[in-house]
Amino acid sequence: MRDVGFGYHEGAELLSGMTLSLQPGMFHFLTGPSGSGKTTLLRLCYADLLPTAGQMKAFGQDLRGLSRDNIAELRRQVGVVHQDPQFLDHLPVAENVAMPLTVAGEPVDMEALRDLLGWVQLTGHARALPPSLSGGERQRAALARAVILSPELVLADEPTGNLDWEMSMRLMQLLIELNKSGKTVLVATHDLNLIRATKAQVTARVLRISGGNLQLAGADL
Amino acid sequence: MAVWQGLMGGEGGKGDRIVPPTGFTAQLTLFSAGAMAFLAVFALALALATGRLANRWSAELAGSVTVRVSAPVAEQEARVQSALQVLQSTPGVGPARVMPQDELAQLLEPWFGPDMPVDALPVPALIDLPITGEAFDPEGLRLRLEAEAPGAVLDDHTEWRRPLVSAANRLRMLGIVSLLLITAASGAMITLAAKAALAANGQVIRVLRLIGARDLTIATAFVRRFTRRAAVGSAIGTAVGMLGIALLPEANAAGGFLTGLGFRGWDWLMPLLIPFIAAAVAFVATRWAALKMLEAVR
Q1: Cα–Cα distances in Å, from A114 out to A95, A124, A148?
Q2: CA A72 to chain centre
Q3: How far apart, in whole angstroms, are the C-alpha atoms of residue A50 and residue A214?
């Protein structure tokens, strides 16, 4: 993104002159106080919002010129995990995890699905309905759903916001594994302890939003 | 093709499962589609029956005239012969036929009952004259009868049949308008039901968009469901409606216009189109509603 600005209301810019380029294969953190625009920045990344100024590109495409079908295509290349992930509550966890394949019209490899559920430690919950999952299980299911199409980029918006420390670290471990397998990861969080604990295991770039601008955080993080 | 796929994809199939099941709404849609199809069968029967009636009356109007000969009983036979002589030399007509007493009695039966002795009444003689060519000139014949056969009056049925033909044509138009209204109402009903289902599944739609579902993929799940419900409901409604029509009394048994309400021969194939039309209407209405609504979801 180059000189990107965004405001929910005319004349009141939440983000301004923001320039950022995610390094392929790198683990990134996006931090800043609540309301600083972390979620907004992530939503801009998967074209849920359009910038009001500047240029935003993903996978070589200008996000402003995307048709609705192109946006759908983009979202198949970007896995997203939200703080409060939503599922199709009438379908079992396994079907929810496989849903990106279903809507993309691709066949579901049952063995690969089982492996994926095993990776997020949800094998025993494959047939459970999402409302019966705990917070940590929901986040892991959301992560499995986000990566089933093998996206190049994984975005996580406060993924540990509702989890205790142990669960948070289990989830971060999965994200670290993803990054080590070559995926670009961007995690938005205001939890500095989480960032420090993760940085102990993986090289991460920390970006801080403050006053609508983006800065590279110092080595103290 | 898409309508066919919509009908044939099994409910609960992979694509369908992305939308939660809605039992009560599904039953309402089925019932409404069935009721509309039932009404459509009767509207179609009305349109076809009145069409036949109008055609028949029009054909009869143009196909024959009647000469009425009024005279004292003693002179009636002679005057009938005079009228027949005039008719024999009239261009554009076929052989004239004097209506026998028993036919006259049948004509009068609705008014006087079956046991009325027609012989005892001063009933005029009636001569049926088929028209065979364009050379027939009713005005010329009327004038000749006045001059050469006193008491003979030409009745070309115009006075009473023209309003009947007009009424039958209007009834046919009403039937066609009813069919169009039923089709439009079905479309509106299914659009409303689809919009309600889409609104109730806003969260599902949002999730699907976020994981990369195209608008058409999401819309198709709803379209397939409503298309199938409309087709099944209207097939049941059509079958019941056709059964009702088939069970109407025979024309000979009750007589009159109402017994003509029904299907004849190939007409029976026409109501079979209703479920297909209902499915097509549901397909178009749901697809339009879904795509329109999805525009609001990024």
Answers
A1: 11, 10, 11
A2: 16
A3: 18
d(CA B100, CA B195): 68
Asked if A71 is an interface residue toward chain B (Cβ–Cβ < 8 A), one would say yes
Cα A216 to Cα A209: distance, rounded to the nearest angstrom? 9
Residue B135 three-state SS: coil
Cβ contact, residue pair B21, A90, below 8 Å: yes
How many angstroms separate the CA atoms of A116 and A98, rounded? 10
The per-residue DSSP string of A93-153 comes to: HHHHHHHHHHHTTPPP-HHHHHHHHHHTT-GGGTTS-GGGS-HHHHHHHHHHHHHTT--SE
Ranges assigned E (strand) in B95-233: 97-98, 125-130, 152-155
Q: Report yes or no: A167 and A145 within 8 Å, Cβ to Cβ.
A: no
Contact assignment for B18 to A46 by CB distance below 8 Å: no
The ipTM, to two decimals, is: 0.91
> A68-83 burial by CB neighbour count: b if 16+ within 10 A, else e?
beebbbbbbbbbbbbb
Nearest Cα to Cα of residue B216 among B109, B294, B135: B294
Phi/psi for B270 (5° steps) reads -65, -45
A150-182 residue pLDDT tens:
999 999 999 998 889 998 999 999 999 999 999
- Nearest by CB to residue B212, choosing from A48, A86, A104, is A104
pLDDT in tens, B164-209: 888 888 988 999 999 999 999 999 999 999 899 899 899 999 999 9
CA distance A133 to A122: 10
Measured distance CA(A139)–CA(A163) in Å, rounded: 9
Give the containing element (helix H, strand E) for A58: strand A57-58
Query: Which residues touch B208 (CB under 8 Å, ≥6 apart)?
Result: A88, A99, A103, B18, B217, B218
Which residues, at least 6 apart from A18, have a Cβ–Cβ distance to it below 8 Å? A1, A3, A4, A5, A41, A54, A212, A213, A214
Q: What is this structure's pTM? A: 0.77
- Cβ separation B14–A90 shorter than 8 A: no
Backbone angles phi and psi of A136, in degrees to 5:
-65, -40
